[in-house]
Predict the 3D structure of the following.
Amino acid sequence: MDDLGFGDNRVHEMTTGEDLAAALAREIRAAVAETAPAETGLPEEPESGELADIRRPLKRAEQYVTPTVPDASRLAAAKSVAVRLLRFLWRGQASFNALLLEAATGVVAALERNRVAIDRHARSFEGLTEESRRRDSAQDTRIAYLEVLLSRSRPPASGAGRAEPPIPESVYAMFEDRFRGSPEEVAEKQKYYLPFLRDLPGPVLDAGCGRGEFLRLLKEQGIVSRGIDSSGLAAQTCRAAGLDVEEGDAIDALAAASLASLGGVVAFQVVEHWPASATFRFLAEARRALAPGGVAIVETINTNSLAAMKAFYLDPTHVRPVPPEALRFLFDAAGFRDLRVEYLSPLPASERLEERSENDARLNTILFGPQDYAVIGRVPAA
């Protein structure tokens, strides 16, 4: 009996009349207890997902359907033989365990099917939401058409007032929502300018503030600012968000500002909507309204990049592109100093040529260069 691995004590127990099957059963239970995982333990790499809390105990339960003896345990060979010999003792229990495990697995599968169905319905709901957006867009277009009819019925304004916008405000608002990018994307790009606008000698005016992305950034930084936009819809939207924005003309607003009353003037994607004479007047009025040490920042489309020019001609309200050299000259002529030109919004590598030579780099600059640039100038300190 020593060869079977049960030891002298177990031989003595069996020689005193104890049933051999009972002794073997005890030995098997002891082997299983030694190798069974703790009830509160988890697998080294637990499954993840919505049903992980159910799958984990099921996976553990599979280990108990039929007892096994690990190869590394003491006297593994003899114990494995005993397990096979006495398998009939727990045949009923094993069947019950297997059926219970199968039922639980079926519940998990049903839950998984239910989750898939919910995801499918969610996608259908998203489709309905997109359809609702399209209907809203169509409704906005009808409203814009009525705006055009209403503008025709108005008497012409006296004097040399501003020219009528080429398209109604509501249509242009839809255009910006579709092609300009989300407010989050625009704000992420505009964060670049924040360091230039700290510790200024006055508040910042955002000319042509649009949806107010930059005004929100300034507000978060504790920088006093206000905005002006020619679109009544944009101004109303900004005010509803708690921003200080007026409807009006940016050049007129600067002309009405007191001498040296501002610390900064910014205009993002605005000057391409003006003729050169308006751009120079804007810069001259900004120079007058800015206090010594004040900053002006003007961003527009990079005319040196052919890919960027696609964006210029995409916008139906653009008047003329403004080359960096021309805008820098106008800054200088208006009296700004410490001028710098910054090129921004580079295209991702996947949209540019693979550069294997200097010629490739030159082609990238011409064809796929940065999409925007900005001229930054300062009013000389007193």
